[in-house]
Specification:
By secondary structure, the chain is of the alpha+beta class. It has helices at 10-17, 20-36, 47-79, 87-109, 117-142, 220-226, 273-281; strands at residues 182-185, 188-191, 195-201, 204-209, 213-217, 232-236, 239-242, 246-252, 255-260, 265-267. 19% of the residues are buried.
Length: 282
């Protein structure tokens, strides 16, 4: 949607769609749209009626979207492929079905006027624009909150970073890790030796060494992928810490923190606490 690919299984998708946060956002979204936008053609409805139809539209679009996702996932498993599932394309199918369903409801059940094919498809474009706005909000503000939910049981996390100790189920064997010597960011190389921890700050990443801290425009998850094979951990979506720098796991003000040898306190996500604990004790 925003240029970022999210790797997840159908089970993860179901957990996200039916999470309290996502359901709440859908209910609020339907209410806000119903206040300013009538889903029926030439038929006046109360706010409650408009809200119910928008809610029905969201259920229809989401159901068709999930069905398409499941079909693509099934093909990928059967054929051993990695076919992507573009959010915009998947939602367009559901949006088209919702637009035509609304037209039939208006025309056949509520006695609304007949519309030309052109008018219906123009309505589809309007609906698709609304769907795109909701997708942007979901990807930018809702998806990042799901670090509180553990997705490791289905493989890669929803944000595409590898869980520690991920098992190579298909081959049955764990490949021998290769030691990364440098991190490559744009045209710059950062040595792995002496790297204490990484910290994501907006669109930049801090590279913390013993004698200096450097900043570079980068995406943390890309650097974590490059660090595969290096003894370290990502205790939080905004941090990666080298094993030589990690000291203790503490709890302060109800939050878990990973302390470093220099006394810095790095936040630990709730769903990663046990992983960090096992990593420290290994």
């Amino acid at each position: 949607m925003n240029g970022t690919a999210y790797r997840m299984t159908f089970q993860v998708l179901v957990k996200v769609v039916f999470s309290k946060l996502q359901l709440t956002s859908v209910l609020l979204f339907c209410f806000m749209v119903a206040m300013f936008n009538a889903p029926t053609h030439g038929v006046t409805l109360s706010l409650g009626g408009r809200y119910l139809i928008w809610l029905f539209d969201c259920v229809l679009v989401t159901s068709l979207w999930m069905l398409q996702f499941w079909l693509i996932a099934w093909v990928n498993v059967r054929a051993g492929r990695q076919i992507p599932a573009p959010l915009t394309v998947l939602s367009a199918v559901g949006v088209a079905a919702a637009v035509w369903m609304n037209y039939l409801i208006s025309r056949e059940l509520l006695g609304g006027p007949a519309l030309s094919m052109m008018s219906v498809w123009l309505e589809f474009l309007r609906y698709q624009l609304i769907a795109l706005v909701f997708e942007v909000v979901t990807v930018s503000f809702i998806m990042p909150q799901f670090e509180q939910i553990s997705f490791e049981k289905w493989g890669r996390s929803i944000f595409g970073t590898k869980p520690q100790g991920e098992i190579a189920e298909e081959s049955g064997d764990m490949p021998e890790p290769t030691q990364t010597q440098h991190l490559r960011v744009n045209q710059t190389q950062f040595p792995v030796e002496g790297l204490r921890y990484l910290k994501s700050v907006e669109h930049y990443v801090e590279f913390n060494y013993d004698d200096e801290t450097r900043m570079e425009r980068a995406v943390l998850r890309d650097l974590v992928d490059q660090l595969d094979g290096v003894d370290g951990i990502q205790p939080h979506r905004s941090y990666w810490v080298a094993r030589t720098e990690a000291e203790n796991l503490i709890r302060k003000s109800g939050k878990h923190l990973l302390t470093t040898v220099k006394g810095e306190e790095i936040p630990v996500a709730r769903n990663r606490r046990i992983e960090v604990e096992n990593w420290l004790n290994a």
